[in-house]
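Researcher: Structure prediction, please.
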Amino acid sequence: MLYFLMFPLLGGAIGWGTNYLAIKFLFWPRRPLKVGPLVFQGVIPRRRRALARAIGDVVATELLSREQIAAALSAPEIRAKAAELAGQAVARRVLMLPVLSPFSRSMREKVGEMVAGAVGREVAKILADGGQDWTGRVLAAVDLAALVTERLEAMEWDALEAMVYSVAGRELKVIEWMGGVLGALVGLGQALVVLLLG
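Model: Predicted structure follows.
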């Protein structure tokens, strides 16, 4: 009867422990560890470049294609906000020009408002005329896959590991506990075999 307690407990502990270690070995060891002719390194550190490239390609082709971004940026409210921000940015630069310093503050502010309005209207017209094609041409100069790849490759290990656990932490815990449950079931089966054969 002791087998029915000991075998499932031992099997459960082994199953949980092996799954726990398997999950940890996704990230650890971070640097190659040589033991004789064998080299040990976590799966993600060893394949970091390939994974970063694959994620960058997926983001750029499946999740955020140039066409999708161009369509989103061509929305009227986005174009209006871009025109407004462009006008404000140019007006701030104009107000810093030394040629305006002799004028009163209220006069400079009026000049700034006029410049912001004029630039805003011109940018709005350019964006409206070009529409999605114009945005697409601008985005064609941006390699989104390379940007994502570069960002992932530059991330600190702790931040990368925390990101994975924040997204899939619950699922990884379930995998750990499932290892324990399956190990306990195997131990129970072993106890039955010992009972039947003994």
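Model: The longest strand covers residues 33-35.
Researcher: Thanks, that helps.
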